Amino acid sequence: xxRKLYYEDSHIRSFDAVVIECVQRDGYYEIVLDKTAFxxxxxxxxxxxxxxxxxxxxxxxxRGDEVVHRCGGPLEAGGTVHGEIDWEKRFSNMQNHTAxxxxxxxxxxxxxxxxxxxxxxxxxxxxDFDGFVEDGELADIxxxxxxxxxxxxxxxxxxxxxxxxxxxxxxSKLELTENVRLVTIQGVDVCACxxxxxxxxxxxxxxxxxxxxxRKNGVRIRMLAGERAYEDYRKRAGSAAEISALLSVPQDxxxxxxxxxxxxxxxxxxxxxxxxxxxxQNEVDIIKETAGNLLFFEEELxxxxxxxxxxAAAEKCGIAAAFSGDGEAGxxxxxxSKRTDLRPVAKDMNAALQGRGGGRPELVTGxxxxxxxxxxxxxxxx
Length: 382
Prior knowledge:
- The chain has four domains: about 5-85, Elongation Factor Tu (Ef-tu), domain 3, CATH 2.40.30; about 90-235, 2-Layer Sandwich (Threonyl-tRNA Synthetase, Chain A, domain 2), CATH 3.30.980; about 250-285; about 285-380, Diaminopimelate Epimerase, Chain A, domain 1 (Roll), CATH 3.10.310.40.
- The chain is an alpha+beta fold.
- About 35% of the residues lie in helices and about 30% in strands.
- The protein is elongated, with a radius of gyration of 33 Å.
- The longest helix has about 30 residues, at about 255-285.
- A six-stranded antiparallel beta barrel has the order 2-3-7-6-5-8. Strands 16-17-18-20-19 form a five-stranded mixed sheet. The protein has a four-stranded antiparallel sheet with strand order 9-10-15-14.
- Strand 6 (about 55-65) and strand 7 (about 65-70) form a beta hairpin.
- The protein starts with a strand and ends with a helix.
């Protein structure tokens, strides 16, 4: 049985221990110590990493009553080793995990919802609740959570006796009857949890809720706390400062300035669309009617604009084939006709020009992976 130092003091960064066992397995060395400060993966909390002497600890997990350290090298059984956990990672995990307890406790008190999913990863802390929280309430929950941080209340752990549990109120995802460890945030939350936590909420620094996503039976929120939340704030502030400088407006006016630019962009796009439509109509007006087919190559026309061109030209020919693109990225196309079923025509062209697409007898759209000369050669034979 491994003595779990992280339960005795979550802030232990280093320790000395005796190597009980070292077994090579699957290209790694699984090392068991008589005691450890390395927290094993569990309850949505990532495993600690660090070093044992000169050996890197890559992962930590539980096997029965033992904590197993998966390492990149061996250690001699019976020897003593000095362990150092990756404190930056551990402290960040504690900040974010305790912050999750605060937020979950607030949501539970307000709505009675249970936390049914929890994960800490590169994308942040993900929490799933079995009920819906309106987006407008999240800011209020975030504010209350940070007030808990500012009050710097104590966070304590306990192992109640089994006979005490029925009389206690606490949150838990599972029905537990023994070896229950309760994490209590004074006046805020009591929850069964196996992971290390900060000793006082002030250590968290700041809590930030970013977004909520409605799911089938509830809501998922993404949040960050502590140093990771601060770094995110710093990055976003830097982006706001850069945008402010580019727009030559104070940072407080950035949103309004962007809205103005978007309105100007939309206006210009509308005018450009009108000019393109006039250009297309002018191009079609000068075309003489023919019993043959007409082939068009246009730069930077989207599919709707190609349809406008092909449909207008189809009034004056057998098949109007309009293409836009280049020989490297390929061409998007529209075929239009008032006289011919285009589906077999498009099928044959797609086979010849590495294309794909489809549509109605009178209108077909798609793409081809061919050069302009190959397209012209093909349509010269149709």
